[in-house]
Amino acid sequence: MESQAHSIIEEPAGAPPRHVAIIMDGNGRWAKREGKIRAAGHRQGAEAVREAIEGALQNGVEYLTLYAFSSENWNRPEEEVRDLMGLLKLYLNREVKTMHKQNVRLRVIGRKDRLSSDIQQMITKAEEHTKDNTRLTLVIALSYGSRDEIIDAAKALAQEVEAGALKVDEIDEDRFTAFLSTKGLPDPDMIIRTSGEQRLSNFLLWQAAYSEFLFLDILWPDFTKETFAEAVSEYQGRDRRYGLRP
Length: 246
Ligand code: IPE
Ligand code: IPE
Ligand code: MG
Prior knowledge:
The protein is α/β, with parallel strands linked by helices. The chain has a single domain (19-145, 188-236), classed as Decaprenyl diphosphate synthase-like (Undecaprenyl pyrophosphate synthetase), CATH 3.40.1180.10. Helix content is 40%, strand content 15%. It has helices at 27-33, 38-58, 78-101, 117-129, 146-162, 173-177, 225-236, and strands spanning 19-23, 63-70, 104-109, 136-144, 190-193, 212-215. The chain has a six-stranded parallel beta sheet, sandwiched between helices. Helix 4 (117-129) links the parallel strand 3 and strand 4 (136-144). Helix 1 (27-33) crosses helix 2 (38-58), helix 2 (38-58) packs parallel to helix 3 (78-101) and helix 3 packs parallel to helix 4 (117-129). It is globular, with a radius of gyration of 18 Å. 32% of the residues are buried. The structure holds 3-methylbut-3-enyl trihydrogen diphosphate (2 copies) and magnesium ion (MG). Residues 24-29, 69, 73, 84, 195, 220 line the site of one 3-methylbut-3-enyl trihydrogen diphosphate.
């Protein structure tokens, strides 16, 4: 099967991004700056999530992926993990109704089986409840690690080969991406990271092959819908080449 080269379709210059992904970093430093405990930073970070959704809706973005908790974040002190999980529950309880009203579809990617069973249930319910919404797909990466995801895909392909359902030579980009948790989503056009750090921290390694990067010095809790609009303008000024022309 010939690759459809789905990630290499040229878009007209100046088009807004279809898919924006954000590494929401800097909650701890925000708390420190404000003389507060880290949990307060995470609480304020959850407010900024609302701003990001609003920004995506206002700018006609179709997919918004938010990195909320990495596979490595499980190694943080127990108390912080507990605070973050508590906040997640609070957020899901409070926001799913609003999301639904805004015609937003929720999808969670990551190792869900590591989450508590009540959180897993809340996620399943929210995904089901919002599954027919069409204005924006909000993808939350939770307990997510891109290397985990790639290894899982490799295993699934190997199993198909072992079962005789697939030949090694038939493995191509389309077959591979069909086993990633982001199946069906376009690759992110732009990846934003706040807090001044300039790294991916195990986020969308495969999917970021041709993403535009935007590193912002602001801390995540200070992110607003205006920040989102500015990021979209910055993106519209970028020249994406995909290796096709000098
Ligand atoms: C991002 O803020 C939130 C998560 C990673 C869960 P941090 O908690 O990493 O904040 P900093 O990087 O310590 O400032
Ligand atoms: C990346 O932030 C993960 C999330 C924002 C959820 P981290 O704060 O965990 O990343 P590092 O440790 O600075 O690379
Ligand atoms: Mg951090």
